[in-house]
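Category: protein sequence paired with discrete backbone structure
Discipline: computational structural biology
Format: plain text, a pair of labelled lines
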Amino acid sequence: MPKPIYERTLRAPAFVYRRTAGNDASSLFCEQVELARLAARYGTPLYVYSAESMRARLHAFDTAFRSIPHTICYSVKANSTLAILRLVAAQGAGFDVVSGGELERVLRVKTAWGGHSRRPDARKRIAPIVFSGVGKTVPEMELALASNILLFNIESASELETLAAAAARLKKRASVALRVNPDVSARTHPYISTGLHEHKFGVPISEARRLYAEAAKHSSLRVAGVSVHIGSQITDLTSFTDALHRVAALVRDLRRARHTISYVDAGGGLGIPYDAKQEGFAELVTGYAGAVIDPLRQLGVHLLLEPGRSIVGPAGVLLTRVLYRKQNNGKRFLIVDAAMNDLLRPSLYGAHHEIVPVSRAAQRGTELTDIVGPICETGDFFGRDRELPITEEGSLLAILDTGAYGAVLASNYNTRGRPAEVLVDGADARVIRKREAIRDLLRGET
């Protein structure tokens, strides 16, 4: 009999099994809070996040990159809940945004920034903000200009001209970097790979020199850096090294052409192991830092980093309750109250998330089963042919590593309200987003 899956998982130290008083079974905790108690109090489905896990991961990034001037600009798209952004800001990190809505969220929490003197905007007491994305609108640009953000990452010649005109109208000078496409494979899922020439992102390095020359002609623009981002969920560190070597060569060329290049934005993309044991996050980030820093070491640039998934992914779980057990000609199903509208990644990418029981009995057999939701789509599943302890109706399951691209991708399909979100910090737990009720869904309709 193979070892039960749940004994090979639970990589994040924030989530551990503990024996509770008067109970033969072990119960899953987030920090010092029992998850079963949170489910009983706030209902399911329920997102639960560990504050200490996020702090520790931000600190690990800061430590790994301490040999080079750097700013961590947390990727807001990974998890944009305001309380998460406040926690990130309090650690002195900046933000990477890709929409006006994300910028509005960051502006709501900017007073929480805990930056110190070595940050580029320390005297302003405003978290550094980088604006990325291929489709920035004029109103979004105007909001960013009025907010004095650190850097615009430009992705096309037309966007460059549009920003120059918007900045001139507002009598502002926008600091810009071109997002270059290094034509380097990220060796990841094709939907989240962004660094090849067939992708919509960035401009070819071969065209970058001409576009930098065009940018320098505009008095409303300030050439300030080079940006690159080759994809998400990358575990092959050589992809980062290959991309940054090409960026370093471009920086040298641009400086020879008398452009001032102060920043290199290395993007994000560091992956997390959704289905394998993690050796240690600090060691992983140290290896990543080496892959990124080595090509840039002699350039004297300020490095911008945009981690998202690697900060919040393992810091979250999605709790769900088993509604029904079912068999179809010997095929077993666990039908749970969470659905693809609560966690889209398995349906969208075929993504793997470990699934474990919240209560773990000492003696319990295992079974091969599919874990599926109640939505009327065959694609509404969380795991297929998973070996789990035999799980009864009414039991709780935890879907791991759902802190990133979980709640932010949630929808109201089948007129389902989005789950509540709870942040745990030590022995304290508080709701940071209320569960949606039907009145919330119908508000605004006629």
